[in-house]
Design brief:
The chain is of the alpha+beta class. Helices cover 39% and strands 10% of the residues. The chain has a three-stranded antiparallel sheet with strand order 1-3-2. A hairpin with a 2-residue loop joins strand 4 and strand 5. The longest helix has 16 residues. It is elongated, with a radius of gyration of 21 Å. The structure holds zinc ion (ZN). The site of zinc ion (ZN) has 8 residues, from strand 7 and helix 11.
């Protein structure tokens, strides 16, 4: 069991993780975690004042488009529905009423504003390290690690604060230390998409062991869920620019636009190429995990090869 995150017997870590309960069956539901991260960033930079929906709408929309699942979601959805979670978020209209629902029209017209629940705001004020620990728990529980820095930057949180809170990671994100080495060896220290293989002083650099199905959504630390990718292709794979077919042919999102020759040769030209395979006899990527990535991460449709 991990230690409670908070003070006075209140486990705020457990509470913020409660917002993930709609992610059964591996369906990604990052809407409420994104709103909470956004609210934590606002709290860190501006204090506990109310956040008016119409002023936050564009920021939330952009966060949802960049880091939400491939299907579109209205910013009104988390803004309203987070009020149903246990003492985390309150919404009030200009005339003192409760949240008018998730429709953007009423949220705008009634000048609805949200804020962190006073209990949470008080706990954050009292315990200076709590904010970073909650941000860390939300990031670990919801997003692939390669996306954490981009999300922190967009919501105004300091990733270094969150890194300091690394001991606050709940049990579920413990990693198998052999995974990285096993995957890199299986693919002979070469990116499965482009073949990149750089070494510095006898150590492979710029190569990652990527999870096809994210660990936070039940992806195992096994070769059947691993790909050796260079840093660029890992990031683009986690952002849904790159994907795989069931036969492990590389796909590129039609929504991805690039003009420079380097982007074309490093990314667009991969479309339709077979991904590199592990050494003979070792397991290839399991089609079930590819299917999860295609449904939950890849920005459909794929370009024609
Ligand atoms: Zn690569």
């Amino acid at each position: 069991m991990s230690a409670p995150i908070g003070s006075g017997g209140m486990d705020w870590g457990e509470r913020v993780l409660g917002v993930r309960r709609y992610s059964r069956n591996g369906e990604r539901a990052p809407h409420k975690p994104l709103l909470l991260l956004y609210a934590l960033g606002r709290f860190r930079n501006e204090g506990a004042g109310p956040i008016e929906f119409s002023a936050a709408e564009d920021d939330l929309d952009r966060l949802l488009r960049e880091f939400g699942p491939p299907r579109p979601t209205s910013p009104g959805y988390p803004f309203h529905h987070l009020t149903n979670d246990d003492r985390l978020w309150l919404v009030e209209t200009a005339n003192g009423g409760g949240s008018p629902g998730s429709g953007v029209g009423p949220l705008r017209a009634q000048r609805a504003a949200g804020r962190l629940h006073p209990d949470l705001a008080a706990a954050l004020t009292e315990d200076r390290g709590l904010l970073a620990r909650l941000a860390r728990v939300l990031l670990d529980a919801t997003f692939a690690p390669s996306l954490h820095a981009d999300i922190c930057q967009m919501v105004g949180l300091d990733l270094e604060d969150a890194e300091l809170a690394v001991h606050a990671r709940p049990e579920v994100v413990r990693r198998d230390p052999a995974f990285r080495q096993d995957v890199l060896e299986a693919y002979e220290f070469s990116c499965a998409f482009c073949g990149y293989d750089g070494w510095l002083g006898g150590v492979a650099v710029g190569l990652d062991a990527a999870h096809v199905r994210w660990r936070t959504y039940g992806g195992p630390d096994s070769l059947g869920n691993g790909l050796c990718l260079c840093a660029l292709h890992h990031r683009l794979f986690d952002r849904g620019v790159l994907g795989l077919t069931g036969e492990r042919v590389i796909t590129v999102s039609q929504k991805y636009i690039a003009r420079a020759d380097t982007s074309r040769s490093n990314v667009l030209a991969l479309s339709g190429r077979p991904a590199g395979e592990p050494q003979t006899g070792l397991p290839v990527v399991d089609p079930q995990h590819i299917d999860w990535h295609t449904r939950q991460v890849f920005r459909r449709p794929a370009r024609a090869a």
